[in-house]
Each structure stands twice: as structure tokens, then as C-alpha cells.
Write a structure and sequence with these properties.
- The chain is an alpha/beta fold.
- It contains 9 helices and 6 strands; from the N terminus they run αααβααβααβαββαβ.
- The chain folds into 2 domains: 1-37, no CATH class; 41-231, 3-Layer(aba) Sandwich (Rossmann fold), CATH 3.40.50.
- A 4-stranded parallel beta sheet has the order 1-6-5-2. It has a two-stranded antiparallel ribbon with strand order 3-4.
- It is globular, with a radius of gyration of 18 Å.
Length: 233
Amino acid sequence: MLGILLDLLFPGYCLVCGKLLLGSHHFVACSDCWKEHFAPYSGVKCKTCGYPLKLKPGSFPYCRECVETGKHFEFKGVDYFGLYDGLVEIAIRELKQKKLLPVAGEIGKSIRGRLLNFIHRTEANLVVPVPESKEMLKERGFSPVEEILKGAGIQFRRVLGKKEGIMKQSLLGKRERRKNVKDAFYPLTGLNGDTVLLFDDILTTGATADECAKALKEAGAREVYLFTVARSV
């Protein structure tokens, strides 16, 4: 009843169908739209970068770009929940840009099954979130990546730090992104041959995750795998 009263006093609307959010909902979408549109991607992915092969066919199991460039990452494998489009994009954007913190819990609960499956398949014994810089944490007040993991009920450990003065990757092109984050991350503690599951919200070029994986290996990780909420296409 309290939730319904708060919804009436501070009304919100489903960003998909426009319906008034009342009672049981997911803060950015009604339950029906969330169930239908916050959907996992089940297609075949590039083994190296995770790009959907149906959108960039190459030579199975690699996409055209990875075949042509011989791309290599420090992380051994990659998976993600869905594509960065539609409601998945809306939910992440509302969480990060509008600081709608409750959405993190909704995202976390939705990706939990797929994330746990990947942890099981990779035999990862440690989950590490991609860190925010101190200046970004101060500006936003929370780490979206960590809050999503909390919503998923996944224990994690802060192993990495991020240097100050790094530009937002979203403001840069593909070539500039790799230069921007080169050596931007550093270990806060040592590891002892752990198999690490690196967790982030969005995978775009893989530059950030690559640098994080490099720092984790320098800290003593045996292998690093990457899981993100979404894959940009």
C-alpha cells in the first residue's frame, strides 16, 4: 500500500508504453514491458569481442573485424546479457545519467541467472567490478556497476583503482578510446592465481576491459573473463 501511495504522490510512467507505473513495476517500465523488452540476446557471438555474428559475419566463430585485424584481448572470454538497445539501453541510461538507483536492483535481478551461468562455466572464483574514478564517484554518489552486482546478489571484491583525469569513453571515437584508457587502471591488492570475472555495464570497443584485465594479470590473476550487462552494436 505504501508503494502504491508513493506512486500516486510521485507518478512515473513506463518509458516503453507510457502507462502509469502503479504497484508492481521496474521504475523505468511496467512489469509487462520489462518482461518483454528487457530481453537477453541468444544469438551467436564473436569468440573474441562478443559482437553478434549476424550483424557482422566473418569466419565462424569470429566476426569480420576480428578476422581482418587479428584483434586480441587480455581477457580470455566474453559474455553479456543483452544488446545495448531498447529497454536495456534505457535502463542503463536512466541509472547512470539520471541517477535512478533503484533501477540497478532491477537490472541485477534480471541478469543474475545468465551471470551465474557464466561464472560457473568459467570457474571464476572472484568477481571484480570495473572501477569508477574518485571524481566520478563523488559526482554520481555511487558505482552503477557495483549496485547492479548487489542487485544480482553477487559478492565482489574491489581489486582495481582508476587514475584521475581520464575522459569519459562515451565522448570518444574508437581509436581515441584505447589511448584514453591506456594504463588507466592499477591493482589495489595482489591476487594469487585467481580466475577473475570482470564485470561492467557496457561493452563497446573492449578497450576499458582490456586494460582492466591487464592490470588484474599484473596483480596475479591466472585468467580473466568479461561479463557485461549489454553489448553496444
